[in-house]
Amino acid sequence: MARDLAIDLGTANTLVYMKGRGIVLNEPSVIALNRQTGEVLATGHEAWHMIGRTPGYIVAVRPLRGGAITDFDVTERMIRLLLQRVGVSRFTRPKVVICVPSAITEVERRAVTDAARRAGAADAQLIEQPMAAAIGAQLPIDEPVGNMVIDIGGGTSETAVISLGGIVALEAVRVGSFDIDNAIQNYVRREHGIAIGERTAEEIKVAIGSAAQTPDEVEAEVSGRDLMMGLPKTVVLTPEEIRYAIDDVVSQIVQSVVRCLAKAPAELAQDFLTRGMYLVGGGGLLRGLAERIERETQVPVRMSQMPLEAVVLGAGHCIENYDALKRMFMGQRR
User: Exposed e or buried b for every residue in 100-120, given b needs 16+ CB within 10 A?
Assistant: First the structure.
């Protein structure tokens, strides 16, 4: 008997929740391919370690960018491998609930469901990530109160106001953690004349990155390739430099929250002041981001207890009542 699954198919990480067992898989959304033969060499953590370290005929790619499928065939193969790793075969075809960004188009929605069905799912339904995040954060979404969720992922940032089981106001931008990494790469290249990789930029962000000034800040040494000489070179970066480098991206995220607040009905405004806004997603872990959003909106910001897992946990709650999920949440924006 197949166990139903919930999949948070994220730009950065893919999480799988199995009915009755909880989260059974949490790995980077990366797949390594042999360009010459088309063979899949690795997925998840193993493929992530290959980024920027492979010969020309091997490529480690993220098949999802900006929350959307950029390579349908590669995404299908990755989903098929994920299902195989959690015990799905052609004899056990589960029902699958997939979390998707609210910003994707109808064509992209069909691409996700088709990829899941071709990969072995008996049925595939979609739930928007802000709704799943609100459920995973244990907010009372079925009550007539304003629940506001800010979900900052690798490729998208979504802010939603939810009340009575539906999305009342929504603001989604295709900007996320990867754009912060790219901004750091571009800054180091422009100001210090060295090239660094995607993984190094992420490490800099985690080590000294921040959206607002924080106590106990330290500098960090970063090594890369000198663009003039082509030789290895080490420079020292300060937190102030990184804040300046990523300010444009952070400002886009903060302004999307402000726009969502402006869209919300006036009757719900007092709910936000008393209940606050809930921050979920890996991008929300950037130091100082919650404080900056709170400062610019004058609304309290609270971090979800499990920000990285909130979305898949919400979808996991839904698969316990799969038929109700199809009636309540599917097609809200179709």
Answer: bbbbbeeebbebbbebbbebb
pTM, two decimal places: 0.86
In this prediction, residue 258 carries a pLDDT of: 94
Structure tokens of 280?
């979920």
Contacts of 299 (CB under 8 A, 6+ apart): 148, 261, 272, 273, 276, 277
> Is 300 inside a domain boundary?
yes
Give pLDDT tens digits for 211-241.
988 888 899 999 999 999 999 999 999 999 9
Q: How many domains in the chain?
A: 2
Higher pLDDT, 41 or 73: 41
Q: Do 301 and 279 contact (CB within 8 A), yes or no? A: yes
Nearest-CA neighbor of 42 among 61, 17, 19? 61
| Beta strands 5-9; 13-18: pairing state | antiparallel
Q: How would you class 137 by CB atoms within 10 Å of its CB: exposed for 0-12, middle for 13-18, buried for 19 or more?
A: buried
Cα dihedral sign, 177-179-182-187: negative
Q: Which residues contact 293 (CB under 8 A, 6 or more apart)?
A: 150, 254, 257, 277, 279, 301
137 located within any domain: no
